[in-house]
Write a structure and sequence with these properties.
Helix content: under 10%
Order of helices and strands: HEEEEEEEE
Radius of gyration: 22 Å
Bound molecules: copper (II) ion
Length: about 120
C-alpha cells in the first residue's frame, strides 16, 4: 500500500510574489488665493496607493476630485484631509467648485487646481 505522496502538493506549491506593496502617501497642499504652488500642482502616485491629500486654504473653497468623484469643503484655519485608494489609473483633475447658491458650480472650463496622475503598477 502506498500513500499518495504529499510531495505533489509541494511541487504544486505556488509562491505568489505579489505586486510591490502599495504605499501610503501624504501630500500637504497649501491653497493661497485659489491657487496651489506650481511644485504641488502635479501629484504622481501608483495604482493601489493610499493617497492622503492634506489641504489648507486661506479662504473657503470647495474641491472636487474628478473620476473618484470626491468633493471636499475646505475651511480656512484647518487641515482637511481628502483620502482615497488609487484603484483607477489615469489623470484626475482637482477642480474648484463654486460655493453658495446652485451647489456644484460649473468651474470645469478653468484649468484644474491640481492634477493627480495614477500610474499602473
Ligand atoms: Cu468638479
Amino acid at each position: 500500500m502506498r500513500l499518495v505522496s504529499a510531495s505533489w502538493a509541494l511541487v504544486l506549491l505556488l509562491i505568489t510574489a505579489g505586486p510591490a506593496l502599495a504605499a501610503e502617501l501624504t501630500f500637504d497642499i497649501k491653497i493661497e488665493r485659489g491657487r496651489v504652488p506650481d511644485a504641488m500642482r502635479l501629484i504622481r502616485v501608483n495604482e493601489g496607493d493610499v493617497v492622503k491629500l492634506r489641504w489648507t486654504s486661506d479662504q473657503p473653497i470647495v474641491l472636487h476630485l474628478h473620476g473618484y468623484d470626491i468633493e471636499k469643503r475646505i475651511a480656512p484655519g484647518a487641515v482637511t484631509e481628502l483620502a482615497f485608494t488609487a484603484f483607477a489609473t489615469g489623470r484626475f483633475p482637482v477642480h474648484v467648485h463654486a460655493q453658495g447658491a446652485g451647489g456644484s458650480g460649473r468651474a470645469h472650463e478653468e484649468a484644474p487646481l491640481a492634477t493627480i496622475e495614477v500610474y499602473p503598477r
